[in-house]
Specification:
Aspartate Aminotransferase, domain 2; single chain; alpha/beta; four-stranded mixed beta sheet; 2 domains; 13 helices; Aspartate Aminotransferase, domain 1; about 450 residues; 16 strands
């Protein structure tokens, strides 16, 4: 149960918020004024001792829960041994590369370790361009792949680009099947997906200079509002790539390590991506990311062509190994699938009662709840969405700031260790916050 013992934000939180305003650029997300102090499992304590339940997982990172005892033990043990040695080999790095290849689909037989999701995106695109004669990369409207210039150039929204000057060349953008607001006005999910595939050829004909290299996509578009692709879309896209002789890059930074009810989201589909990016839940707290690929691609990389100061460092590798061990031993993939069904039932019940919950989409423990003025018009309601997040905060539930193309989508992504009791408790809080927001 949450426990709020001060006004929010409390006196200590206000002091740190003022310090941040004075010394930090205010360029990060506009979150509720929650100043984290510590966390355990699905519970967060702020600097004033208030307790909150967590629907954020630190933005889909702490899949094994906050400060899992075994995870902490493994990280502490590594801290006594070695932090960094550049790209000299260590046992944890070799063990992690082996583990990733073992748990990945059989066709992926190499693992390149880096630090952040953006690093992984950049590395995958560089690998594709080095191994292929072409250089053009196709990505989708609404996509988010990171914040560096290459990753931002691949993105299909203004959020990471606006005001930062010209982006990199060599990227083509095409519609993603956002069925609730289908760019083609399709009446069925299947039709929306098919129209987007058909439009790929139009995009290539109108924008390409004849040097296609790869397609990059997320299994679901997180930042755009947890947009799930229609059934069959990725299988058709995979086939399209193979017919064109180009690579298929699957960006699983947000979706891997049990988040969708499978170890990897690609396991939901009959596809064989050539490169797969991993991050967030891989390290489950300590920054760690990777690119899974085929030796046919990675073997073209000569020594010194790709590396990283901190990539695959022993601390992050040890943390990732601990996280994978916890996920497997404690059945967190299966728990994600089970608890996801409970969330779906609760959200559907709320949707039936209220006009403002326009769309529910998700799988496992990642859900997007799209808020509208009413179901008939589908007019986005960003103000209402923001009120829900603030109300939930004051009731002891931590939610991430609204996401989506119109900032009217709530992201639900608790740690994978969440229990049935906590699912219902958090949903009760959410429903109360929702109904309070209806009052203005």
């Amino acid at each position: 149960m949450p426990k709020i013992i001060t006004e929010l934000p409390g006196p200590n939180a206000r002091a740190y918020l003022e310090k941040s305003m004075k010394y930090e650029p205010q360029s990060m997300s506009d979150q509720v004024p929650l100043v984290w102090d510590r966390a355990e499992g699905c519970v967060i304590w702020d600097v004033d001792g208030n307790e909150f339940l967590d629907w954020s997982s630190g933005v889909l990172v702490t899949n094994v829960g906050h400060c899992h005892p075994y995870y902490v033990e493994q990280v502490k043990d590594q801290c006594d041994k070695l932090f960094n040695c550049y790209d000299f080999l260590t046992q944890p790095r070799a063990d992690l590369a082996e583990k990733l290849v073992q748990i990945a689909p059989d066709h992926l037989d190499r693992a390149f370790l880096v630090t952040t999701g953006t690093d992984a995106t950049e590395a995958a695109m560089r690998m594709a361009r080095r191994a292929h004669e072409g250089f053009e990369i196709i990505s989708f409207h609404g996509a988010f792949h990171g914040r560096t210039y290459g990753a931002a150039s691949a993105a299909g929204s203004r959020g990471t680009k606006n005001g930062f000057g010209p982006m990199m060349t060599g990227f083509l953008h095409t519609p993603f099947p956002y069925f609730y607001r289908c760019p083609f006005g399709s009446e069925t999910e299947e039709e929306c997906g098919n129209k987007c595939i058909e439009f790929l050829d139009w995009t290539v004909e109108r924008e390409s200079c004849g040097a296609l290299c790869a397609v990059i996509t997320e299994p679901y578009q997180g930042g755009a509002g947890s947009i799930m692709a229609p059934k069959g879309f990725f299988e058709t896209l995979d086939k399209w790539c193979k017919e064109k002789g180009i690579y298929f890059i699957f960006d699983e930074v947000q979706s891997s390590f049990g988040r969708t009810g499978k170890m990897f989201a690609m396991e939901h589909y009959d596809i064989k991506p050539d490169l797969v990016t991993l991050g967030k839940g891989l390290g489950s707290g300590v920054p760690c990311s990777a690119v899974l690929g085929t030796s046919a691609i990675t073997d073209v990389l000569p020594p010194g062509s790709m590396g990283s100061t901190n990539g695959g460092n022993p601390l992050s590798s040890r943390a990732a190994l601990a996280a994978i061990d916890i996920i497997q031993r404690e059945g967190l993939v299966e728990n994600s699938a089970r608890m996801g069904e409970l969330f779906k039932q609760r959200f559907e019940a709320i949707q039936q009662k209220h006009e403002q919950l326009g769309d529910i989409r998700g799988m496992g423990l990642v859900w997007g709840l799209e808020m509208v003025k009413d179901k008939a018009s589908k007019e986005p309601d960003a103000d209402f969405t923001r009120r829900i997040v603030l109300n939930a905060f004051h009731r002891g539930l931590c939610m991430i700031a609204p996401i989506g193309l119109f900032k009217n989508v709530l992201r639900v992504a608790p740690p994978l260790i969440i229990t049935e009791e906590q699912v219902h408790e958090t949903c009760d809080i959410f429903e109360a916050a929702f109904e309070e927001a209806l009052q203005g």
